[in-house]
Design brief:
The chain has 138 residues and is α+β, with helices and mostly antiparallel strands. It is built from three helices and seven strands; from the N terminus they run H-H-E-E-E-E-E-E-H-E. A four-stranded mixed beta sheet has the order 6-5-4-7, with no helix packed on it. A three-stranded antiparallel beta sheet has the order 1-2-3. Helix 1 runs antiparallel to helix 2. The chain is elongated and about 80 Å long. The relative contact order is 0.09.
Length: 138
């Protein structure tokens, strides 16, 4: 729009409109990405706060049994076969278990006993294990 305003000012010999349009174009080119990044971040923070706020205090019980992982929470009881795990990505605070169906199962490293069970599961079932302990969220 600002380029159209600059062209209109140039055609009608309106020096103010032309310079105003060029100045606005310059501002959008220089600071447009910063503004859009800020808007997206604010939008998604609000989305997470509104949709996932009540779920943050819910605890889930995880049991690793011989051939499956059992997850029990207040609303469900589910099982994942260990044979469906394609790979395990490990960072400083979490294990990401890549499932063959597409999604990841995220297990925090809060309990040492659970960490030992996950490492034992990886060894016993020969699951590809990728360790990136220096990885950081950006």
């Amino acid at each position: 729009m600002s380029l159209l305003l600059a062209c209109y000012g140039y055609l009608k010999e309106g020096v103010f409109l032309m310079y105003y349009g060029l100045f606005c174009t310059f501002l959008v080119l220089c600071f447009g990405n910063i503004y859009l990044r800020w808007r997206h971040k604010r939008h998604y923070k609000k989305h997470v706060k509104n949709n996932f706020n009540c779920q943050s205090e819910e605890s889930v019980q995880i049991k690793i049994i011989d051939d499956h992982i059992r997850m029990i929470d207040s609303a469900s009881d589910s099982n994942v076969k260990i044979s469906e795990i394609k790979a395990v990505n490990e960072i400083k605070d979490y294990y990401f278990l890549k499932l063959s169906t597409g999604p990841n199962l995220i297990i925090p490293k809060t309990l040492t006993s659970l960490n030992n069970e996950v490492n034992e599961m990886i060894r016993n079932h020969n699951i590809p294990h990728f360790v990136q302990l220096d990885w950081k969220w950006r």
